[in-house]
Amino acid sequence: MPAKIIDGKKIADGILENLKSKVKSMNEKPGLALVLVGDNPASEIYVNFKEKTCKEVGFYCERHNFGKDADEMELLNLVTQLNNSPKIHGILVQLPLPKQIDENLITNSILPHKDVDGFTAVSLGHLFSGNTIMAPATAMAVMRLIESTGTRIEGKNAVVVGRSNIVGKPVAMMLLEKNTTVTICHSKTEGIAEKARKADILVAAVGKPKLITKEMVKEGAVVIDVGINRVNGKIVGDVDFENVKEVAGFITPVPKGVGPMTIAMLMENTLKAMELAKKI
Q: Domain 27-111 carries which CATH code?
């Protein structure tokens, strides 16, 4: 029986409508600053969509654009201003940054309670210690999509293919918090197919088109595809969707899966950041 498609866009739309209703009754609006450096076409698309969504739900939004020759000091000065701004509750510096700029330096200059991307060492440290303040939006999206299936997570085997600080590691930690048994696979892992076949929950986040094939998926598994790859002008994921859906129990499409949910989680984090600011 073909897998049930997890409609990330539909779930995200519901979350955004709920946020929009909450914001209407607020005197103070959550404020998000978006910082774009350089001329990466994909980054510009992502920031445009985040800005559009921010305004649609009624948040205050600032956008700051820098050319590809921007230097670190310019960016650090801006982050300092945004850290000190009472109108700005969340700061998002779109990655990747140009080579002359140290991404870790810039990311970690953001105050932890304004780190809506959840990328600072402080945010990740809290996540890894089981005391999450602000989790990475994409990892949150993955967890919400898994939970939307109604599948019992506790005690199940989960395999995460990918070990980035943005998705792979945070998702693994969040699954561990839910009492799953987690295996992380990466480019040096031997026998990935064999390990993947044991997964009740399989998360693919490596950026390799159609890496996960039908033969690598356990019958009835929940398959979450985080990959976004452009192949012959089309956007495809890390999972061979058409074939894998024949064996999986649930599967996310690409697009309209993890992507829209990531934006929704970013908006949730911005509202949370405003609430945190009131406690400081």
A: 3.40.50.10860
